[in-house]
Amino acid sequence: MSINLKSKLTSLYPNADIEAFKDVPNAFYYKPSSKLFKADALSKGGFVFQISARDFFDENLVRDCLLFALNHEEEIASLKDYVVISGFKSKGYAFDTLVAVSSDISQTYKVEDPELSLITRKIFPAYKCEFSGKETAKEMMYLYTKALHPSDLKREPNPLIRISYTNIKTQGFTFKPFEKKPRGPLTDEIIKEKKKDRGISSVPSLMHAIETLNGVEGESYVDIENYKGELANIKWDKTYIVKTNDREKKFTVEEIKEWIKDFIY
After folding, report:
1. d(CA 158, CA 125)
2. Which of 100, 135, 172, 207 could form a disulfide with 167, with the two C-beta atoms 3.0–4.6 Å apart?
3. How many CB atoms neighbour CB 66 within 10 A?
């Protein structure tokens, strides 16, 4: 599919000034609204790589993203749902990864221009700790639309963590962010089932699960899987007991917080 990208953008955004993006071939910059910035680049193979920024726009960062994407066109063009590419760098930023998602994930132009949607890849800078590369399409859609805020170019790392937990005292247990939380008491059957069910979670939710484990012995636990696929089991027995690779180590309340940071970032 051969397209005139500027013509397409002018049609889609008639009230925006579509300007050539400096030092990026076949690329354009525009503002669909007062707080939203976008830049699109047309690859040699006829794919559109688009990046969005809300409230804050750094031309150099966006240029680095577009050029990096164009240099990895084959990987991005052939993606099914998404691709995570390491090695990205931009001066002044800690981003070390570039992610591209299909329009099935981003929903870009699905309604406005279905044909353009098929060849559009949304891209954004990211951190390696945010992806394992094994996410399902459903999980990636959750990360893209709910967890990561990819259009925030000033954002801090939001590490990918999967947790499974049960807490006899609070009656809390794991449920995935896109599932409806089951009702009813915490039974032995639920405890057994939830040990197999690590769902994507957030750092605040993880820390809350750890904090409420304090003083609760017995069947209560928190299991964590980081972006590397490394596993840790945490229980309470007069102090925090962390088991990794068949090794156990004791931590105080303050020590466990620092250990968690090292484990998930």
Report:
1. 12
2. 172
3. 25
pLDDT value, residue 184: 58
Closest by alpha carbon to 187, among 200, 199, 208, 173? 173
Find residue 126's DSSP bridge partners.
97
Greatest alpha-carbon span in the chain? 67
Who's near 144: CB < 8 A, 6+ residues apart? 101, 105, 106, 122, 150
Q: Residue 176 and residue 182: Cα distance in Å, rounded?
A: 11
* Whole-angstrom Cα Rg for the chain: 22
pLDDT in tens, 159-194: 999 999 888 888 776 655 445 555 556 565 655 555
CA distances in angstroms from 98 to 14, 49, 52, 87, 88, listed in the order given: 30, 12, 13, 8, 6
Task: Give the whole-angstrom CA distance, residue 147 versus residue 155.
Answer: 11
Q: Which residues of the chain have pLDDT under 50?
A: 177-178
